[in-house]
């Protein structure tokens, strides 16, 4: 006798449907995670490019403290 108890009618079909649904959800979650990671990396690259552009513009304008220095100074206590 099965330790799980008697089988309900259609129990195998219901279990299979639940497993299929779980598999689909897992695949969608993995695809979403990959997309989010890619977009996060792209956004990081864009922010770095923007910081470089701002630093270049500040240098062209003759401003002495580029953004990186301004961001680090409060940490150093200046």
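^ Assign residues to that structure.
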């Amino acid at each position: 006798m099965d330790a799980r108890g008697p089988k309900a009618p259609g129990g195998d079909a219901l279990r299979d449907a639940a497993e299929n649904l779980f598999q689909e959800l897992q695949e969608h979650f993995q695809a979403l995670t990959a997309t989010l990671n890619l977009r996060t990396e792209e956004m990081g690259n864009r922010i770095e490019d923007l910081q470089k552009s701002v630093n270049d513009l500040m240098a062209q304008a003759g401003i002495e403290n580029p953004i990186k220095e301004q961001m680090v100074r409060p940490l150093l206590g200046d």
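Residues 29 and 43 are 21 Å apart (CA to CA).
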